[in-house]
């Protein structure tokens, strides 16, 4: 499960790069913008502001689902769909980004998602 908390080698991630403000895009549309990045307990993740799409709430996305970073376009591409992000364990407060139990639950959810393949759903 450690892979879910690490950028893939081919993601385009550059250590120390600030992704705040980047648009986060799923295969089926835009999710929102990176509000902040965090790395608590070795569990790297992005907190994404979804705007009005999910009733103005933020979501926590492990960096292991990042498939591409385009710094010029200020865009982060993820492998999961909008529905998968919306169904992830609910992110309520900033303190959850430092709660190992919550982070483990989120990691298990994303790690269990089907691999990125063409699907009919």
TrEMBL record:
Domain of life assignment: Bacteria
Any one cellular-component term (Gene Ontology): plasma membrane light-harvesting complex
Residues passing through the membrane, by range: none
Gene3D superfamilies tied to this protein: Photosynthetic Reaction Center, subunit H, domain 2
InterPro entries reported in the protein's UniProt record: Bac_photo_RC_H_C, PRC_barrel-like_sf
One BP annotation, GO: photosynthesis, light reaction
Name of this chain's protein: PRC-barrel domain containing protein
Organism: Streptomyces fumanus
Lineage: Bacteria, Bacillati, Actinomycetota, Actinomycetes, Kitasatosporales
